[in-house]
Amino acid sequence: MRKATAIVENKFGLHARAAVTIVNEASKYSSEIFFTKGDDRINAKSILGVMVLEAVKGTEIDIEVDGSDEDDAIEAILSLFKDKFNEE
């Protein structure tokens, strides 16, 4: 299992387009991928789950990845956050 923390840096937060980008990337991996914000823990392969987080710019998201391709999966997800979901 791998864990990391990412900060939402894009100006619109985890809105619909960013959520779709996350879900599309997460779905490429067989590992389970979960995001946690406060008391909310969601499956990162669920667009509704990602949007329910209501994460605005500056929000910290804890990422937990477990599975055979967890190293690749967590690096890909962290890269999306770092690259501001390719929006800016």
- C-alpha Rg (nearest Å): 11 Å
Largest sheet, order of strands side by side? 1-4-2-3
CATH superfamily: HPr-like
Kindly provide the name of the CATH class: Alpha Beta
Question: Any idea what the CATH architecture is?
Answer: 2-Layer Sandwich
- Please count the beta strands (DSSP E, at least 2 residues each): 4
Number of helices: 3
Look at the helices and sheets and give the structural class.
alpha+beta
Distance between the termini: 31 Å
Description:
- Strands 1-4-2-3 form a 4-stranded antiparallel sheet.
- It is globular, with a radius of gyration of 11 Å.
- The chain contains 3 helices and 4 strands, in the order βαββαβα.
- With 88 residues, the protein is α+β, with helices and mostly antiparallel strands.
- Helix 1 (16-26) runs antiparallel to helix 3.
Features:
3 helices; 4 strands; Histidine-containing Protein, Chain: A; alpha+beta; 88 residues
Structure summarized in a few sentences:
This protein has helices at 16-26, 47-52, 70-82, and strands at 2-7, 32-37, 40-43, 60-66. The chain is an alpha+beta fold and 88 residues long.
